[in-house]
Write a structure and sequence with these properties.
Family: Belongs to the amidase family.
Enzyme class: hydrolase
CATH architecture of the largest domain: Alpha-Beta Complex
Strand content: 5-15%
Oligomer: single chain
CATH topology of the largest domain: Amidase signature (AS) enzymes
Shape: globular
Number of domains: 4
Organism: Lingula anatina
Helix content: 40-55%
Keywords: Hydrolase, Lipid degradation, Lipid metabolism, Membrane, Phosphoprotein, Transmembrane, Transmembrane helix
Strand order of the largest sheet: 1-3-2-6-8-7-12-13-11-9-10
Bound molecules: ligand L644U5YH
Structural class: alpha/beta
Largest sheet: 11 strands, mixed
Number of helices: 24
GO molecular function: amidase activity; fatty acid amide hydrolase activity
C-alpha cells in the first residue's frame, strides 16, 4: 500500500471514531505513561530501601571485623597469646599515640620507635569508640591491617611511612563504593584507587576509614544521608559538623584521625573545618589530581572541585601536600601541572602585605568571628607583616550571581538524579525548589524579597541558561570579572587576605543548619579559584556571647545565624586565608606563622 493510501485510510477510520474517542485514547496513553513512570519510581524506592538496609548491615560487619581484631590487654605477652595481629595497647598508650602532633608521630614511625600496626590500631580503636556518639565512619577500610604489616616489614620508608589517613566517602578507594549517601550508587565498588589514594599509599600512608558525607555532597550545613545517617560535631553533639566533608571534620576534631582528604567545590572542606575547629586547605583547581573520584559536579569547568587535606595542625596539611605533589601524581594524571611543593615559598621570610575584612558587603560576621579575624591580624602584625583593611569588590552583587548561577547551571539536575527514587535527606530538601519553573521562581523572588533578601537573591541567581551561547557568554563575563578582581587585589599589592570562613560558628542541627547560605564568605574563593586555608584561632567566649546580644541583624539570614550562635561559648572559631592561584605554599606559610604566633600567645 502506498503511503498516501495508508494516510487516507487512517484519516477515514479516525473520522468515523469521533473526537471524543480520540481524546480518550490520548488521555489513556498519557495516563498509562505516568502510571508506568510512577511504578518504576516506586519500585526503585522499595529496592533502594532494601539496599540501604543491607549497606548498613555490611558497615556493621566491617566495624565488627576491625573491632574483633582488637583485643585489649595490658601486656605484650597477653597480646601474643591472642595472636600476632591483636593489639596490646592500653588506653594510656592509645591516647599518647593518637594525641601526638603529626610531625612527631611520623618521626617515631620512621625511627621505628612506633610500629605502623600499633599506630593503626590506636587510631582504629579511637575511631570506633568516638564513632559510637559521632557517626563519622561510612566504612572502615579492612585492608589497612595488611598494609600496616607490610609497612612494618618494609626496608625502604616513604615520607608518610605508616601514617593512618582517613578518606572522604566520595574519594575512590579500590573495592569500596562511593555512594555520596545515595542508594543508587550502592554495589558499585571502585575498581581502582583514585590517583590521590594511590600516591598516598605509595608514600607509605595507610588509608583506614572512609568518612561520612551529606547526601549528594551538595550541603554545607548538615552532614547526613539516608544510608549512614547523621554525623555529629564533637564539640557539641547538638550542632552540625558542616558539609560536605563533615565526616572528616568530625573525625579529625575528635582526634580519631590525624589527617584526611576532603573535597571542595563550594566550601565543602572549609565549612566543616570551621564548624569542627580543624585545619584545612582547599587548593587551586588542578593542583591536586581529582582523577578516579566520584564524578559528581565535575562536568562544570567554571567551578571545579578540589581535593585537599584536613588535619590537626598545619604540619599535617604540609606533609600531605608535599607527599602528593610528587612525580608519581604528575605521571598518573598528566593534566596536573608538575609543580612540586616549593619549600622556598613555604619557608620564605619576606614580610607580606595581607588584607583583612569581616564584612564582604553583605553584613558583619558574628562578634566571635570578627574577634577571630582581629586576633589573626594582630598575631600576623607581630610576625612583621603589614595588615591592611580591605573590602573585596562586588562580592555580594556580581560574584554572588556568578557563583550561584554557575553552580546551579544544570538546575541541580545531576544532583537530583543521584537521589532519584531514593529517600531524600532533609539537608537537601530545598534542592527541589529548582524543579519549579524559573518564571514562578522569579515571581517568588519578588514576593519573598521584603522578608528574606537572601532567599530572594538565591532564587534570582538560580536562573537557567537558555542556550549554549548564553552559557559561553556568561562564562566569559565571569572570567572578565575575575580578572578585575585580581587587578583590585594587585593594586593593593596584596599577598593574601584573612577573613571569616563563614559568618557563624557551628549551628544547631535541624532547620537552621539546613538553611541556605552557610557557605557565606567561602564560596568566593571557589569562584576565583584561589587556594584557601582554614586555621582555628580562638574559642567563643562569654564576652562574645554578650556582644552577640547587641548584634543587630539586618536580614532574616543574620537573624537566623544570630539565633544559631546563641549558647556557643567554647566552640571553635576559625579564619580563612586566601592567596592567588597556585600559591598554596604561601597560604600554608601564613597559616603556619599564625599557628605558631597563637601558641606563643597562649604560653
Ligand atoms: C533556589 C534555592 C536552592 C539553592 C540550593 C543550592 C544552594 C547553593 C548552591 C550550590 C552550592 C554548592 C555547594 C557545594 C558543596 C561542596 O563543595 N561539595 C563538595 C563537592 O566535592
Amino acid at each position: 500500500m502506498q503511503f498516501n493510501e495508508l494516510r487516507n485510510k487512517i484519516v477515514d477510520e479516525l473520522s468515523t471514531v469521533g473526537h471524543r474517542q480520540v481524546l480518550l485514547a490520548v488521555a489513556g496513553i498519557i495516563g498509562v505513561h505516568f502510571v508506568w513512570a510512577w511504578l518504576k519510581w516506586f519500585g526503585l524506592r522499595v529496592k533502594n530501601a532494601g539496599k540501604r538496609k543491607r549497606k548498613r548491615e555490611e558497615r556493621q560487619k566491617m566495624i565488627d571485623i576491625v573491632r574483633n581484631s582488637h583485643v585489649q590487654s595490658e601486656t605484650y605477652a597477653e597480646a601474643v597469646k591472642y595472636g600476632k595481629h591483636k593489639h596490646h595497647l592500653s588506653e594510656e598508650t592509645i591516647d599518647s599515640i593518637t594525641n601526638l602532633p603529626t610531625k612527631a608521630l611520623l618521626g617515631q614511625l620512621k625511627s621505628g620507635q612506633l610500629l605502623a600496626v600499633d599506630v593503626l590500631h590506636a587510631f582504629q580503636h579511637k575511631a570506633l569508640e568516638c564513632d559510637k556518639d559521632l557517626n563519622f565512619i561510612s566504612t572502615p577500610i579492612v585492608e589497612a591491617e595488611a598494609a600496616a604489616q607490610t609497612c612494618d616489614a618494609a626496608v625502604k620508608k616513604g615520607p608518610l611511612h605508616g601514617l593512618p589517613v582517613s578518606i572522604k566517602e566520595s574519594i575512590g578507594v579500590k573495592g569500596y563504593d562511593c555512594t555520596l549517601g545515595c542508594a543508587n550508587w550502592i554495589d558499585r565498588p571502585w575498581e581502582e584507587d583514585s590517583v590521590v589514594v594511590k600516591v598516598l599509599k605509595r608514600q607509605g600512608a595507610i588509608p583506614f576509614m572512609k568518612t561520612n558525607v551529606p547526601q549528594t555532597l551538595v550541603s554545607t550545613g548538615v552532614c547526613s544521608n539516608p544510608i549512614y545517617g547523621l554525623t555529629k560535631n564533637p564539640h557539641d553533639v547538638t550542632r552540625a559538623t558542616g558539609g560536605s566533608s563533615g565526616g572528616e571534620g568530625s573525625a579529625v576534631a575528635a582526634g580519631a584521625s590525624i589527617v584526611g582528604l576532603g573535597t571542595d567545590v563550594g566550601s565543602s572542606i572549609r565549612v566543616p573545618c570551621a564548624f569542627c575547629g580543624v585545619y584545612g586547605l582547599k587548593p587551586s583547581w588542578d593542583r591536586i589530581s581529582n582523577k578516579g573520584n566520584h564524578p559528581q559536579m565535575s562536568g562544570n569547568k567554571h567551578l571545579q572541585f578540589c581535593v585537599g587535606p584536613m588535619g590537626r595542625d598545619v604540619d599535617s596539611l604540609v606533609v600531605i601536600m608535599k607527599a602528593l605533589l610528587c612525580p608519581d601524581m604528575f605521571e598518573l594524571d598528566s593534566y596536573i601541572p608538575p609543580i612540586p611543593f616549593r619549600d622556598e615559598i613555604y619557608e620564605g621570610l619576606r614580610p607580606l602585605r595581607i588584607g583583612y575584612y569581616w564584612n564582604d558587603g553583605g553584613g558583619d560576621a558574628m562578634p566571635a568571628v570578627q574577634r577571630a579575624v582581629q586576633l589573626a591580624k594582630s598575631v600576623l602584625e607581630k610576625k612583621g607583616h603589614l595588615l591592611l583593611p580591605w573590602t573585596p569588590p562586588d562580592v555580594q552583587t556580581k560574584a554572588f550571581e556568578y557563583f550561584h548561577r554557575i553552580a546551579l547551571a544544570d538546575q541541580l539536575e545531576e544532583t537530583l538524579l543521584l537521589s532519584y527514587g531514593d529517600k531524600r535527606d532533609t539537608c537537601i530538601a530545598h534542592h527541589i525548589f529548582l524543579k519549579i519553573p524559573y518564571f514562578i521562581r522569579s515571581v517568588l523572588a519578588v514576593l519573598v524579597k521584603p522578608v528574606d533578601g537572601l532567599m530572594s537573591k538565591f532564587l534570582y541567581a538560580s536562573k537557567p541558561f537558555s542556550s549554549l551561547y548564553e552559557w559561553f557568554s556568561y562564562g566569559k563575563e565571569a572570567d572578565a570579572w575575575k580578572a578585575e578582581f585580581q587587578t583590585a587585589w594587585q593594586s593593593q599589592g596584596l599577598d593574601a587576605v584573612i577573613c571569616p570562613t563563614t559568618s557563624c560558628t557551628a549551628l544547631p542541627l535541624g532547620d537552621m543548619a539546613d538553611s541556605v547560605g552557610i557557605e557565606r564568605f567561602s564560596w568566593l574563593f571557589n569562584l576565583l579559584n584561589y587556594p584557601t586555608g582554614i586555621i582555628p584561632v580562638t574559642k567563643v567566649t562569654a564576652d562574645d556571647e554578650e556582644k552577640l546580644k547587641q548584634y543587630k541583624p539586618n536580614s532574616k539570614y543574620e537573624k537566623v545565624v544570630k539565633r544559631g550562635c546563641e549558647g556557643s561559648e567554647g566552640l571553635p572559631v576559625t579564619v580563612q586565608c586566601a592567596t592567588l592561584p597556585f600559591q598554596e605554599e604561601l597560604c600554608l606559610r601564613i597559616m603556619k606563622e599564625l599557628e605558631q604566633g597563637l601558641v606563643k600567645m597562649e604560653n
